[in-house]
UniProtKB/TrEMBL annotation:
This is ABC transporter ATP-binding protein. The keyword Transport applies. Residues 10-240 form the ABC transporter domain. It comes from the Bacteria. Keywords: ATP-binding, Nucleotide-binding, Transport. The keyword ATP-binding applies. One of its GO terms (molecular function) is ATP binding.
Length: 352
């Protein structure tokens, strides 16, 4: 079949997957572009691993079609696909050395011993594993095993690599380093990466596009920026970022809330508005414009700033990101009331 380079590498069309009566994936339509780094993200049980396993050929769709490079793959078994899968506990061959594990795929393809050793060494070097080639797998740390698994999958230079939470067993510092390794490799090699994770920081740090899944369906697809600043639904707004949601009927730029009328930049009608925590200002005195009163609950250090938690009189939780100096100046105590305010043009109106 003719397959122009501009057509997506992968097309899911109305893909449905049921386990008995349980529907894990519903009417999934998804295009994966050639050479992109796509992250599938969502809470536990949302169907992201099932979606990836269908792409790898480890599960067959109950209905619908999956094409790779224009070819319908529904009935093509995993070993007839060029879609290696790397996952957290990838079973490396324990009876083979590190380099023998990495060489394995090349051996299966009949590559000469000299060439496969050279190619495997290049990959061990890239994965900072030079010097470990003769170790047994059980003599490696979890992080080292994971890098062997990546080297083993990439040594055959596949068109697409599938990754299922590959970094979840690694120490935090190694995760950051491996994120850098993975994104650099992906761009250098031009391989399409499909990466399943429940970690927002991982997905947003690495992916060109992120797919947010919930209850077996796609909630939103977009760049990290689009999803972070423009969540389409309450589900996405609650799952990503640190968002506050304001809901109520809007008339002539004023939303009626349990706290009274609040100015908003939104058309008339019932609306849900997202105010990101990093766009909320905390003050003791009432500011001009959009603001509400809330009691301080607690604070949490979060790398880029401090997240302060508040509760409004009607029981809604609000989050505001503040700097260390600002927190020291405010010196909040539990139960104290503050004003939370924001620039109403810096908010986002959700579609649904
Ligand atoms: N082989 C199976 N038999 C029965 N149910 C299954 C099977 N595989 C998955 N499921 C169910 O399908 C749903 C989706 O599972 P899936 O593994 O795709 O979720 P996930 O989003 O990857 O979650 P997690 O992050 O926890 O791995 C879950 O409720 C799961 O229990």
């Amino acid at each position: 079949m003719f397959d122009a380079p501009s057509t997506p590498l992968v097309q899911f069309r109305s893909v449905h997957k049921a386990f008995g009566t349980y529907v894990a994936v519903k009417s999934l339509d998804l295009d994966i572009r050639r050479g992109e780094f796509l992250a599938l993200m969502g809470p536990s049980g949302c169907g992201k691993t099932t979606t990836l396993r269908m792409l790898a050929g480890l599960e067959a769709p109950t209905s619908g079609s999956i094409t790779i490079g224009g070819r319908v793959m529904n009935d093509v078994p995993p070993h007839r696909r060029d879609t290696p899968l790397v996952w957290q506990s990838l079973a490396l061959f324990p009876f083979l050395s590190v380099i023998e594990n990495v060489e394995f795929g090349l051996r299966m393809r009949g590559i000469s011993p000299k060439e496969r050793r050279e190619r495997a060494m290049v990959w061990l070097d890239r994965m900072a594993l030079a010097g470990f080639e003769n170790r047994r797998i059980d003599q490696l740390s979890g992080g080292q095993r994971q890098r062997v698994a990546l080297a083993r999958s990439l040594v055959t230079e596949p068109e697409m690599l599938l990754l299922d939470e590959p970094l979840s067993a690694l120490d935090a510092h190694l995760v950051i380093r491996m994120q850098g390794v993975l994104t650099r490799l992906q761009k250098e090699l031009g391989i399409t990466f499909v990466y399943v994770t429940h970690s927002q920081s991982e997905a947003f740090a690495m992916a060109d596009r992120v797919v947010i899944m919930g209850h077996g369906e796609i909630e939103q697809i977009g760049t990290p920026q689009e999803i972070f600043r423009g969540p389409r639904s309450r589900f996405v707004a609650e799952f990503v970022g640190r968002n506050n949601i304001l809901s109520g009927p809007v008339t002539a730029g004023i939303m009626q809330t349990p706290q009274g009328g609040i100015p908003v930049s939104a058309p008339d009608g019932q609306r849900d508005i997202v105010v990101a925590a990093d766009r909320v200002t905390v003050s003791r005195d009432r500011p001009e414009g959009a603001a509400l009163r809330a009691a301080f609950l607690s604070e949490e250090f979060a790398g880029t700033g401090i997240i302060c938690y508040f509760e409004t009189p009607d029981g809604a939780e609000w989050k505001a990101q503040v700097g260390e100096k600002q927190l020291a100046a405010l010196n909040p105590e539990s139960g104290q009331d503050f004003w939370l305010s924001w620039d109403s043009t810096n908010t986002h109106v959700m579609e649904r």
